[in-house]
Design brief:
The protein is built from 9 helices and 8 strands. It is of the alpha/beta class and 253 residues long. Strands 2-1-3-4-8-7 form a 6-stranded parallel beta sheet, sandwiched between helices. It has a two-stranded antiparallel sheet with strand order 5-6. The longest helix has 18 residues. The protein starts with a helix and ends with a helix.
């Protein structure tokens, strides 16, 4: 999910307080947090449950971030409740004179939860529309359940059609360029119009989900490989350049 998540993180208005963007994330948001400026070693500290974990002092699951200086609201282990908490910061920002927005993300399976639909409903109330960028990262699976066996809608972004005037878009989240352009449009819309936007990014899931579906590599598109190929095709880099990066990073492990 790096192609989409890093692109998102780079567009956030970083800082603390009502005049900066609030982030209500889920546990697949490492790319966003790293793009904000977080250190990779801190995620490893949380993974090992050490007291030096800056997010929870070793008391939470891995990737459960909490970063006050970036307005990253504590990640909850319960499924999709971040869509409900996003309503609160959305209301605060709707009342304030600011161009800052609330960003919330989750997975495709979690859109069956009431929290997701509560967020859509509250964000679209005529009395007080909320400046929330509602993101769904769709990797095609709900742990070990295929998404096409669970969803009656053609695209998750079609839920925007329920609310007159609400924009909704589905994109290829494996494509850095398409992700960047779509996020630029979505951020700009919410900042200017102070209304919600629903963005669905379809991404790969390269490995299984814990013991529920195994941990073997799945033969799906890798967004990093796609990005490298695209840069080479555009003449922005050479294959040898990337080979050196991979060799350097492998040697540093």
């Amino acid at each position: 999910e790096e192609a989409f998540n890093v692109s998102l993180g780079l567009r956030v208005k970083k800082g603390r307080g009502i005049n900066c963007d609030f982030l209500h994330l889920h546990y697949r948001s490492s790319g966003i947090v790293l793009a904000l400026g977080a250190s990779p070693i801190d995620a490893l500290r949380q993974m090992r449950a050490t007291a030096t974990d800056p997010y929870s002092k070793g008391r939470s699951f891995v990737n459960h971030y909490s970063i006050p200086k970036y307005n990253v609201v504590p990640v909850s282990p319960t499924i999709e409740t971040q869509y409900a908490t996003a309503i609160g910061t959305g209301i605060a920002q709707a009342r304030a004179k600011t161009d800052a927005i609330t960003v919330v993300n989750g997975g495709d399976a979690g859109t069956a939860e009431g929290d997701f639909h509560s967020c859509l409903g509250w964000a679209n109330r005529p009395a007080l529309p909320l400046p929330i960028l509602i993101v769904v990262v769709n990797n095609g699976w709900g742990i070990s359940t295929k998404s096409e066996t669970q969803h009656g809608e053609r695209q998750i972004s079609d839920w925007a059609k329920v609310f007159p005037g609400m924009p909704g878009k589905t994109i290829n989240g494996n494509d850095v360029f398409e992700s960047g352009a779509a996020l630029e449009e979505a951020f700009a819309y919410v900042r200017k119009n102070r209304k919600p936007y629903l963005l669905e990014a379809r991404c790969s899931r390269l490995y299984g989900h814990s013991s529920s579906s195994g941990a073997n590599r799945i033969p799906e598109a890798d967004c990093i490989e796609l990005f490298e190929s695209a840069l080479i095709a555009r003449g922005a880099a050479k294959a040898a350049d990337f080979a050196k990066v991979w060799e350097r990073e492998a040697a540093a492990l």
